[in-house]
Task: structure prediction
Amino acid sequence: MEKIYMIPVNDAYNETCGCPICRLRDKAENNYLEYYLGPSLMEPDTRKITNKTGFCPVHWGKLNKAVTNRLGLGLVMHTHLKDYNEDLNPKLKASIPAKAGLIKGRSSEYKQKLNNVADLIEKRIGTCPICDNLNEAMGHYIEVICWMFSHDKDFKEKFLKAEFHCLPHTALLLRQAAKLSQNEASEFVEALYVNNTETFDSLISDVEYFTLKFDYRNTDKPWGTSKNSIQRSMRFLSSDGRDFDEQQSKKQS
Ligand SMILES: [Zn+2]
Ligand SMILES: [Zn+2]
Result:
């Protein structure tokens, strides 16, 4: 089993709050963001890739927020725009439908051409080297987590103590568990089940309490753990925490 993935996995599980796999993802993602704004952008091989792909909408946004290297971002953007334009411009021009006369020259061929150019644009929007690298790294991490659960007693303890595994990462763990032997999968999935059920139960009760707080009879009762239960539920449901900041809850008090 690949040791280079074990250290970050152990680190992520040393903390007990939130989903450890989200922590792994965030850390890896930050490394890739730094990589693409770091010296790599002067390397012709990397630039060949980013000229073609650019980044997905999420990662353009994150690169924009990471203000470490504005010049680098400008250089990457410049050559990406040029590449995109060289690719798209002639195809877009060729797709302009010829004006048809009343009788002659009508053809539905232009429809296909227009759809082809739309396909090209949509395909390019979705391609992103950070997403590709991240998906590959996550694949290794998930594999290592399942392996360590069955082979490393200390790690198993930590896994059982995790506050929760968010649902998207639970799905990844289940897919990996489907590759284990039946006995290994049995223990692993039972641990996931317990973790999952406890999380659902506590969130359901906290969110219910949150709603009850809006009843005037409960105004003076303490918020307890319910105050940020909406944001915690969002993190559990969807893993990505970008917009789930708890400032929103503070406005309610
Ligand atoms: Zn997660
Ligand atoms: Zn991306």
Remarks:
- Residues 55-56, 58-59, 128, 130-131 surround zinc ion (ligand 2) (CB under 6 Å).
- The mean pLDDT is 90.
- The CA atoms of residues 163 and 206 lie 15 Å apart.
- The radius of gyration is 25 Å.
